[in-house]
Specification:
By secondary structure, the chain is an alpha/beta fold. The chain has two domains: 198 residues, Rossmann fold; 168 residues, Glycogen Phosphorylase B (Rossmann fold, 3-Layer(aba) Sandwich). It contains 13 helices and 16 strands. It is globular. Keywords: Transferase.
Length: 378
């Protein structure tokens, strides 16, 4: 198949959407498909590099951090892709490149599939002073996107339920969790701690991910201050628009937070492996690739209860979901103080992730959906 993937973001930007695209592209190419990517340039210049088409754009950081926009629909590279006539277009963002995808799909008479990566209801503070008005805008906007597609991929059951609430037809929504690359072998915990100067006797809880307001990281900082556990350390790994705000917030407390900032991609698994627990307080995730990464590294996860974690974090099996501080404290203490429980959760976490969240599983499901869409077109 000739497959065109469209996205407002692409490498070298690294976020959940981009990682999902890179994994899907790799899988499809390994299966022998001809894959091209249409994305936005980080300048006004348009260009092509191998099978990646970059369309000139302008920064739109006031709308959302790192966002870019382009109103170009008659660019020579877009015309080139129309002439290429893809068999399938798989859109990954709802803005500039989505409109380009709609135009190309119409010209090529091919199915358009879209992955709904972001729950925009949790981001209304970026564009609307009223959450109620913001949610209504998102509902109408999302329905308009769905009406222009053949199928809508929801990365989780949570996303599926939200899309159904927007009156999008059930038959059009398909749940496909994004796959990630799993480490072939687990790194040695003692060695990882030695590399990053973490004391061997320390009990380490870890948050790894983008630092943004909607991630609710202040809650983790507050909860950490209230935990009475000997040799406990809280390490925050990641960058983002809210990093400085969090550093300022943490200064009011006695117990220090270890902010590591952005780290190299090859160091990510080292940080997971040197931790005793992965924690998250976010309820804005559509799926949460960092959950999959933590589990694949054999680390139990304690996360705020959320529908996106259904069939991901299973209480007493590979971690726990909490609803308040008392539950958070109870689960953290149980896992850190009961070595046998921690070993059981870690073993289950690794095995479950390998079975459910691999790139192969993800890519195969997308491929089958493409075939279904093409069959529907006949």
């Amino acid at each position: 198949m000739k497959i065109l993937i469209t996205s407002d973001w692409y490498y070298p930007v690294i976020n959940g959407v981009v990682r999902s695209i890179l994994n899907l592209k790799e899988y499809l190419e390994n299966q022998g498909h001809d894959v091209k990517v249409l994305t936005l340039s980080n300048s006004t210049e348009s260009y092509r590099k191998d099978n990646i088409y970059y369309i000139g754009s302008l920064g739109a950081g006031k709308i959302y951090p790192e966002a870019r926009i382009s109103a170009t629909l008659r660019n020579k590279y877009i015309i080139e892709l129309k002439k290429w006539k893809p068999d399938i277009i798989h859109s990954q963002c709802e803005f500039s490149t989505f409109m380009m995808a709609v135009r190309i799909a119409k010209k090529a008479s091919c199915p358009l599939i879209h992955t709904y990566h972001t729950i925009y209801e949790d981001y209304t503070h970026y564009f609307s002073p009223s959450k109620k008005v913001g949610k209504k805008v998102i509902s109408v906007f999302s329905k308009a996107i769905a009406d222009r597609t053949d199928f809508l991929i929801a990365p989780s059951i949570k996303t599926e339920k939200i899309l159904e609430r927007y009156t999008i037809e059930k038959e059009k929504i398909v749940v496909i969790p994004t796959g990630i690359h799993m480490p072939d072998k687990l790194l040695d915990k003692k060695n990882c701690r030695k590399i990053h100067n973490i004391d061997e006797s320390a009990k380490v809880i870890l948050y790894l991910g983008r630092l943004a307001e909607e991630k609710n990281i202040e809650e983790l900082i507050r909860y950490y201050q209230k935990l009475d556990i000997k040799n406990l350390e809280f390490i925050l790994v990641g960058g983002g628009p809210y990093l400085n705000n969090l550093k300022s917030y943490a200064k009011q407390f006695d117990k220090k937070i270890d902010f590591k900032g952005m780290v190299k991609s090859e160091e990510v698994n080292e940080y997971y492996r040197m931790a005793d627990l992965f924690v998250s307080a976010s309820s804005s995730e559509t799926q949460g690739l960092t959950y999959y990464e933590a589990l694949s590294n054999g680390i139990a996860a304690i996360c705020r209860k959320d529908l996106c974690l259904k069939e991901v974090i299973i209480d007493g099996f590979n971690g726990y979901q909490y609803e308040n501080f008392n539950e958070f404290e109870k689960y953290v203490k149980e896992v850190l103080e009961d070595e046998d429980l921690n070993k059981k959760l870690s073993k289950n976490a690794r095995e479950y992730a390998l079975e459910k969240f691999s790139v192969k599983s993800f890519g195969n499901k997308c491929e089958k959906l493409y075939e279904k869409a093409l069959e529907k077109e006949k």
